[in-house]
Amino acid sequence: MVTAHSKSLAAARAPVQFIYITGCDGTGKSTQARLLLAQLEAAGRAPMHLWLRFPFFFTAPLLVYARLRGHSWFEEHNGTRQGYWDFRRSWLLRTLLPWVLLVDAALAALGRIYLPLWRGRTIVCERFVLDMVVDLALAVGDPRFHVRLPGRLFRRLLPRRAQIAILNLDAATLRARRADLEADRRLEERLLGFERLISDYKLPALSSRLPVEEVNRQIRNLVHMPELNTPFEQVRVHP
Are 43 and 122 in contact (CB under 8 A)? Predict the structure, then answer.
């Protein structure tokens, strides 16, 4: 006879199918995603790779309006381009756009996450709802956006057994790593946004100061996949 307790233990030990790697640009998300995908393939799986930071559909007309009204713009420095949102002076954008983006994110989750998971796929996702929450918190000028409506609903779109790993690094090191971040005026604010998520949501943060192989080892420990034992040096990572 299988008890409810034994069922819950089996569920807790079941391998994670949705792995979400997030954090600021330059923290090594793409490197870790490629490495994990290669290890999953070496273990005999056929993983999917997703990048879902901007699943715009119904949001698109509002963003066109934002650009026309000067609430959204790009800045170029030494051949690199940075985009910015500032919705603080627009009641329409500050109030409506987060809800519409939540709808777009839900539609993207249904078609690109939940359907493949139902089919048994394993997904490695670099960007999704937590990235949207950080972007929106900066745009509406509300550091507590993630604990208010609609901000806290974005996290509900994640699969129940999702494993999240936030890669963290200081602004000075990020700017030294990536030339395109040297002129990013909101890098420090974005880093603070992720630190708030780590603190308030109790999410695992991995330091990108560690060697790539050590960060990979920590991610593999988080996802509870003992079959991902292919040595780091033997994994063929796709560019």
Answer: no
Q: Residues near 2 by Cβ (< 8 Å), separated by ≥ 6?
A: none
Residue 25 burial (10 A CB sphere; 0-12, 13-18, 19+): middle
pLDDT by residue (tens digit) across 26-75?
999 999 999 999 999 988 888 999 999 888 999 999 999 999 999 999 99
Rounded Cα distance, 135 and 84, in Å? 9
Considering the entire predicted model, what is its pTM? 0.89
Helices and strands in the chain: count of H runs, count of E runs = 10, 7
Please tell me the distance from the alpha carbon of residue 172 to that of residue 181, in angstroms, as a whole number: 10
Dist CA 17 CA 46 (whole Å) = 11
- Residues with Cβ within 8 Å of 8's Cβ and at least 6 positions away in sequence, in order, are none
- Pair of tokens at residue 119: 């089919």
Q: How far is CA 100 from CA 44, 103, 114, in A?
A: 39, 5, 20
Please state, rounded to an integer, the average pLDDT across all residues of the chain. Answer: 90
145 near 137, Cβ under 8 Å? yes
